[in-house]
Amino acid sequence: MHLPQEDEVDFVLFCQARGRLKKEKVAILTGDRVELSELNYPERTAVIVQHQERKTFIDRPPLANIDQVVIVQAVRQPDFNPLWMDRYLVHFQLSVPFTTPIICLNKCDLEDESGLLRLRSIYEPLGYFVIFASATTGVGLEELARCLAGKVSMFSGPSGVGKSSLLNRLSPGLDIKVGRMENSFGVGRHTTTYSELYRLNLDSYLPPAAAVDAAGAKGDQSLEVAQERQFSWVADTPGFNVMEFMQSDPREVARQFPEICDLGQYCKFADCLHLVEAGCAVLASLEGEMPELEAAEGEDTVEFMPLVESRYVSYCTMVAEAQEMEAAAKTVSSKKESNVKTVGSDNKAKAKVIPRLAGKYRAAARNTEKQRIPRVEDFDDVGEAET
After folding, report:
1. Model's pTM, two decimal places?
2. Where are the domain boundaries for CATH 1.10.40.50 in the chain?
């Protein structure tokens, strides 16, 4: 996508992929960087002739070249769901492993201070950056804008938590369609139905370039502020079913919970999954029976990340699901279908798979014919002699 300069006008082009890309089965996703040809400015059309290599890829929802993920949930309407949050965290930690997801809790104006502090105490000690925001009152939007500035971000979360409303408040003029809660129990409806990339105008929340110069900033710092204004993008994605976030490796899932990994190094067995194993330090910590451990040199006590029961419940649920998937994969037979056979070459790439004839239509193998024991009925003269 061509980024307009200061003296250019921003507009949208309707693009189609060249036939060669279609034959090569190149899929163009939201966030892809492409090269265009045959630009028709009056008609606002162009042809995609080249697809550049992706630096990141997320399969659900399908997006490319994302720098960071912002997981949006509401504290009320719909109520905060810890299992959903942990599923999103695990999914995106595995999909974009080079960055830690940002947690944005919207509708904070509907929760009291003690409830917000409780949520903050769960995730901030684990290394997650937590932002409390409100698209209604504007609380937390400046902090959120600083996180989005100069990056390609992705908003993800359940339906009805206010992802589109936050973007409309952050960047006036986007005019993204939003829904309205029409029930008392706070279940969201799908308003956003496809992923779309928006360029943000964060002038209302970022310091103006003049203020940066007045503060004695150097030229490169002023340029950085200008680039943040121009290159801030966000993908608004539809809410989707987090119950479909299934991983087939239970140990890979376990590694996405830092507080459990921190305690797990003191378990009796190195391959402990912290479910029912004997000598498990995680289970002992939950029961308040953690044994005294030898502190590192220069330290009085051993410090651990806090282990919250809701997080452990999410951990058990997701690891059990991964174990079921792993067991199901092992029961699938790798035996070839009996009704096909490979012919033509010993090279698998050149060989062809053709249908195998049913038994009654097959010619008997020559070796089988040679080794078959003759039956008495096959000799007519023997029967005549006996008669």
Report:
1. 0.74
2. 250-331
Cα 231 to Cα 149: distance, rounded to the nearest angstrom: 7
**209 Cβ contact list (under 8 Å, min separation 6):** 222, 225, 226
Residue positions counted in the chain:
387
Q: Which residue has the tokens 């029967």?
A: 383
- Domain 63-244, architecture per CATH: 3-Layer(aba) Sandwich (3.40)
pLDDT in tens, 64-121: 999 999 999 999 988 999 999 999 999 999 888 888 999 999 999 999 999 999 999 9
Residue extent(s) of CATH 3.40.50.300 domains in the chain: 63-244
Verify cis geometry, omega within 30 degrees of 0, for the bond prior to 4.
no
291's tokens = 């044994």
Tokens of 91: 């999914």
Across 231-253, b (16+ Cβ under 10 Å) vs e yields ebbbbbbbbeebeebebeebeeb
Q: Are 318 and 249 in contact (CB under 8 A)?
A: no
DSSP calls for 280-317? -HHHHHHTT-PPP-PPPTT-SS-------HHHHHHHHH
Peptide bond preceding 78: is omega within 30 degrees of 0, i.e. cis? yes
pLDDT digit string, tens, across residues 3-55: 444 444 567 888 888 888 888 888 888 889 999 999 888 899 999 998 899 88
Q: Which residue has the tokens 């949050």?
A: 85
Tell which CATH architecture fits domain 250-331: Orthogonal Bundle (1.10)
Residue 45, SS3?
strand
Torsion of Cα atoms, 121 then 124 then 129 then 130, to 10°: -10
Give the range among 153-157, 212-216, 347-351, 360-364 with minimum mean pLDDT. Answer: 212-216
What is the three-state SS of 239-267? CCCHHHCCCCCHHHHHCCCHHHHHHHCCC
Find the mean pLDDT for residues 179-183: 52
**Cα atoms found within 13 Å of the Cα of residue 25, Cβ hemisphere only:** 0
